[in-house]
Design a protein that fits this description.
Blueprint (H helix, E strand, L loop, with lengths): L4 E5 L4 E5 L2 E6 L3 E5 L5 E5 L8 E10 L3 E10 L2 E9 L13 E4 L5 E4 L1
Antiparallel strand pairs: 1-4, 2-3, 2-10, 4-5, 5-9, 6-7, 7-8, 8-9
Length: about 110
């Protein structure tokens, strides 16, 4: 694993909510710490209601994690563009986050319950 990035199991049960709905809940979430950035909670894709998400055209590249694919959240109240992202084929040093999603905290709520 990169010295720049630390990944560990996120203790407890975590939930992601938006637009009045629970989109997922997991006790298998991961906490990723990267340099001076705030920690990010990654949820296993299997614990997220993926029916609410459509892949967007947005991608970004991180030199430590690889290429991120973004997802729009489709809710009754409208579309939340690029509300989630995933490193579907991350670099080997962070391979634990494959098949996990992280969320834009300005568009959804992520909390430990």
């Amino acid at each position: 694993m990169s010295d720049h990035i630390k990944i560990k199991a996120a203790s407890g049960t975590w939930v992601v909510r938006a637009a009045g709905a629970v989109l997922g809940e997991s006790n298998e979430a991961l906490e990723l710490a990267e340099g001076a950035f705030p920690e990010v909670i990654y949820f296993p894709r299997k614990d997220i209601s993926m029916a609410f998400f459509d892949k967007s055209e947005t991608t970004s590249t991180c030199p430590h994690k690889g290429t991120a694919t973004y997802y729009n959240l489709e809710a009754k109240s409208g579309t939340f563009a690029d509300a989630a992202w995933s490193y579907e084929t991350p670099k080997d040093s962070v391979s634990q986050i494959a098949d996990y999603l992280a969320f834009d905290l300005t568009k959804v709520n992520v909390e430990r319950v």
